[in-house]
Structure formats: structure tokens, C-alpha cells
Amino acid sequence: MTPSLPSLSAVLEAGRREGIAPALSAAVIARGTLVHASWHGVVPLAGQGERALSRDDLFDVASLTKVMATTTLAAQLCAAGALDLDAPAAARLPGFEAGGKAPVTARHLLAHSAGLPAWRPYWELAARDAVAAAAFRPPGERPPLSSLGEAFTRGAALVRGAVLGEPLERPPGTAAVYSDPGFMALGLLVEATAGAALSRLAGERVFAPLGLASTAHLDGLDLTAGPARLAGRAFVPTGWSEARRGVSQGVVNDDNAWAVGGGAPHAGVFSTATDVAAFGQAWLVALSGGPSVVAPEVARRFVARDRTPSTGRALGWDTPTGQSSIGDRLGRGERGAVGHLGYTGSSLWIDLDAEIAVALLTNHVHPSGRADRPRLNAFRRAFHDAVAEALGI
């Protein structure tokens, strides 16, 4: 029987009733034991109305991809001696030196301090291209994922060129500005270092070893991996995409990730709350010195706050600052907490002292495609405070 804390279920049900999201799911692991898992709301079925959300229904976890895939792979490569955090990224990425990026390192990219912009609409390059534009046709006219390989290959080439050529907005290491282009560049660096596509690397080196059977990229350029493994599963819808003129369900919400096929370093992973919490637990095991997918000494380096001035960022991870979505009670011990948020309404927070991993997944952006960040953050804070209260923290 799945464990459930009634007070947490009540908060999630209240969020559903109040319109935080049509679907919400959460899982909490405390000191290695799953103490709560629940799912609330509905998932629409193609042409068949809707049904109650279930444990196995898949959420687009958006930017949790940055820690679940790209950051963890970078940590593995560091442990193997293959990736030097302080070496110029351009040494492995010819062309990346353009736009003043010659001094940019993997550390800068992980800490969002490279000086790259917060966001760019790279998908527009694909949408205007004669070949790549096939992926941006309206849902009724768009070929199935299995027939979009040529479009995604062209889109990936266009986006790669744009990321490599993207100029800096400020000198590296002077400020931390959360940057999707920075993590897209980091993904290219990981692929160049490991010699394989990021979605396949994440599946083989992170998700499979951890037994995360419900976690994968839906990568249109590698249909034998994630798409095949998650076939037949139900997907929670996310918001309206103006670029694709439809609601995303069973395809990545982020348009830049979609342009490259879905196997992106900044977004594109689908998962469940129990899998996301189990991933957080794997990092806790590593930080405690146990065997995991990340070496303990490297894990400790990655969760330490970066040296960039006035930042709360660690390497790939975030830490609580100000009115953090972790609330007022978790992460207040000596070691603090690390976590990450996702635009669709997802989050993962890990209390390093209490050894608690909390996954909260929602489709807050459905159906409008827009996030009400103050409202969502207030709900996240209330939920995490309820977790702390239920666990006596």
C-alpha cells in the first residue's frame, strides 16, 4: 500500500480546487523511506474524455531536466577525470569562442555565471526553415514523432549553431543570471566529452542505474530509447504553444527543446513524482558517502554555493534564498538544501540535514501556457511547510 500523509494530500487537493493546476502529484522520501505519494486531478484522454490522475501518469518536468540529466552527467564526467570544470569549454566545442566566450568554463555554465542571456527564441530559426518547419505545423497537420527525424536533425543543427555563436552579455563570473542558453551549451559540452547524445547518456548512466523506469527524454532523434520505453503511458498536458498552435501533451512543452527533437539539456525529461523523489534520494546517498550515480566527493562540490558574487546558485543546483519555494522550515539546518524548479510547475527540494527529498509535480501552465509565478510560489511554500510540519521539523 502506498504511504500517504493526510495533511499533504489535503494541501494538494486544496490546490487543485483553487485552480493551481488540473493535475498535481507529490512524493516525499525521508531518510531513505517513501513516506508520502499521492496524485490529484485528472488527465485528458485523446477523444475519450478524461480520467483521474494515477501514479504512473507522466509529467513534463521542464527544467528539472537540468539537474536530473545534464548536471548529473557533468558530475559523472568530472569524477571520471573527463571534464575539467575550469577549462575553457571552447577547447571541446570549436566555434564556442565566438562572441567573447573563449574564457567560459563548464563551472560558469553550471553556475549560470557564463554571461549568456536568460533565454533566446532559437525555435524561430527552425520554424522558418524549409525542412525544420515540419515540426512546427499545427497538431492536425504535423507528422508523427517517428516521421520528424529529418526536421529535428535540421533543427538541432540550427540551434547548435545559434548557441555556439551566442555573444556574452557580461563578463564570465561576474554575476549569476539563470540561463537556458548556458545549459544548452553545457549539454553540447557533455555530448562532446562523452561522445553520445545527451538523452541516451541520461537514460543509460542516470535513469537506468537508479531504476527510474518512468523517467526519460522523449527524443524524436532516438526513438528506441525514451519514446519506446514510455510508449503506451498517459501524459499530463501542459500549456498552449503559440509556436506549434496547440496544447502540448506527450511532447515537450519547451519550444527550444522541441526544435531539437526533445532530447535537450535544459528541458525535455518526463517523469513521475516518485521517480523524481528517488532521484533526489540518490544525491542524498552520494552526499552521505554511499554508492550512487554520483561520486561523493564530486556531489559535495556540486551542492556547494558557487563563488560568483551575490549568488544562491550551486553547480547546476539552486539553494534557498529570500522567499524560497522551499518554505520557511525545510533547509534551515547547517547544511541547508538544494533544489530546482521547472516552468511547468514542477520542483525538487532536498533538505540536506533532515535527509528529505520532496518532489512536487503539477501542470500549472495548462491550458494557458503561462505561469502565475507569485501564486505558484506561494502554493509551493505552503506545501513544503506542510511537509515540514507533518515530519516534525
Written as H for each helix and E for each strand, in order along the chain, the element string is HEEEEHHHHHHEHEEHEHHEEEH
Spatial order of strands in the largest sheet: 3-2-1-11-10-9
CATH class annotation: Alpha Beta
Quickly count the helices.
12
Structural class, judged by helices and strands? alpha+beta
Distance between the termini: 25 Å
Mean pLDDT: 97
CATH topology: Beta-lactamase
Give the proportion of residues in helices: 25-40%
By CATH's scheme, which homologous superfamily applies?
DD-peptidase/beta-lactamase superfamily
Q: Unreliable stretches, pLDDT < 50, 5 or more residues?
A: none
Strand content: 5-15%
The beta-strand count equals 11
What is the CA-atom radius of gyration, in angstroms? Answer: 20 Å
Number of domains: 1
CATH architecture: 3-Layer(aba) Sandwich
Instruction: Characterize the largest beta sheet: strand count, sense, and whether it forms a barrel.
Output: 6 strands, antiparallel
Give the overall shape, derived from the CA principal axes.
Answer: globular
